[in-house]
TrEMBL record:
It comes from the Bacteria. PROSITE patterns: RIO1 (PS01245). Residues 2-114 form the RIO-type domain. This is non-specific serine/threonine protein kinase.
Amino acid sequence: MPRPHLFFEGVLLMELVCDADGDAAPRLNDSVFTPAQARDHHARLIREVVRMLCAGVVHGDLSEFNILLAEDGPVIIDLPQAVDAAGNNHARRMLLRDVENLRNFFGQTAPELLQTDFGAEIWALYERGALQPDTALSGRFQRQHKTVDLRGVLREIDDARAEDAARRLRMAQAR
Ligand SMILES: Nc1ncnc2c1ncn2[C@@H]1O[C@H](COP(=O)(O)OP(=O)(O)O)[C@@H](O)[C@H]1O
Ligand SMILES: [Mg+2]
């Protein structure tokens, strides 16, 4: 993110993000890069997303239009609509969308990224309180299926049968 310089009467003055020539850096959507660069930028931006979430913030409008390509790598800008991760009902949905935007954009250049699911993985770790700025990520996410307690179910059935048998026996004896 650009370094903030001063905040005065609601205006935040930030560092100008520059490209290699010292000009204002282009947005990602106006930039050209190789598949290797796409993978590198994607990985670095995922790490930024994780660091923001560790600080309790979700960007909420992250896309190739709000990322500048500076001399030393991508820089995320345009944060006024960022939301508080813990206090906002939409935080999860917004984080998933932010990460999906990154995947779909860089996936155009490096198609293998289209198979990844970093958003769900990141949010699951965050929810469990297990997300750290440097947590290793796989890009895969296994949805948790609850294992069925088969023994427990069979025990319930046996109990119901035994109860029914006992009831029939009592009825037969009462006749
Ligand atoms: N720190 C910065 N350094 C260089 N250019 C910037 C910087 N911040 C914004 N810009 C330029 O201004 C444009 C609009 O900024 P942005 O923060 O995305 O506002 P919005 O999308 O709300 O109009 C960006 O697309 C970028 O080209
Ligand atoms: Mg913008």
